[in-house]
Amino acid sequence: MDLRTRPYRSVLYIPASKERALEKARALPIDAIIFDLEDAVSPSEKTAARDTLAEALSRPYGNRTRIVRINGFDTEWGEADARAAAVMDCDAILLPKVETTEQLDALAALTDKPLWSMMETPAGMLAANQIAAHPRLAGMVMGTNDLAKELNSRFRADRLPMLTGLGLCVLAAKAHGVTIVDGVYNAFKDDEGLQAECVQGRDMGMDGKTLIHPAQVAIANAAFAPGSDEIDLARRQIDAFEEAAKAGQGVAVVDGKIVENLHVETARKMLAKAEAIAALAE
């Protein structure tokens, strides 16, 4: 399955230094894992964490996409992380705090693997289009905690302070065919709040959500997967449009609403996503 078209409903952060967490992740029903060498690993453990992660990745993680988040090149660990990740059995390398295409160029010079970028600063938001257009970029991850810090914004359930940045990154990702995953929800015991934020992200066009705890997985998986009613409508739209086309008509009507080519294209994409989700469980 192509890295850009596979599901990313649930993307769980796992500290690269924690052997127990690395092992537990193999059994979780998640679409992707971000193996974190950056924020989740203390400075004293960063060097050893590379070896711990390399050993863990030498064994299968099933159909889950394996993404390694390295430290930035402005730190003493960044370049060594990149060189180590380049030879690990992972699917992509995630660079933190990307603000310029030159940062991605520096990483691309050290690896042939697909690149992902953390979008977590005001400068990153303003450069989202150029970043998404980078020829090696396959995915973007919203770093909303860091963005909130940089904005000096207050927490709001509606994420009003975040909406401009989130929107700019969604537009850039969709313009260039790049996967985009929403930021984390910190209150991992607040199911209602997580549900609301997942629905908001899905409605905006996000492909999935980054998670900080396994307890959040089921809610994210459900929110970012097509529902049975959506799948049923998609099938009926396709069937109706095909019947209309046979009769020489350019539009159809389903449930009292016009169905055109663009609706059929959306319906086909939805069915393809549902099939890809089902394939992950095989």
Written description of the protein model:
The protein is α/β, with parallel strands linked by helices and 282 residues long. It has two domains: 10-223, Phosphoenolpyruvate-binding domains (TIM Barrel, Alpha-Beta Barrel), CATH 3.20.20.60; 228-280. The chain has helices spanning 19-24, 46-57, 78-86, 101-108, 122-126, 128-132, 144-151, 163-176, 191-204, 217-223, 228-246, 261-280; strands at 10-15, 32-36, 65-69, 92-95, 115-119, 137-142, 179-182, 208-211, 252-254, 257-259. It has an eight-stranded parallel beta barrel with strand order 1-2-3-4-5-6-7-8, surrounded by five helices. A two-stranded antiparallel sheet has the order 9-10. β9 (252-254) and β10 (257-259) form a beta hairpin. It is globular, with a radius of gyration of 20 Å.
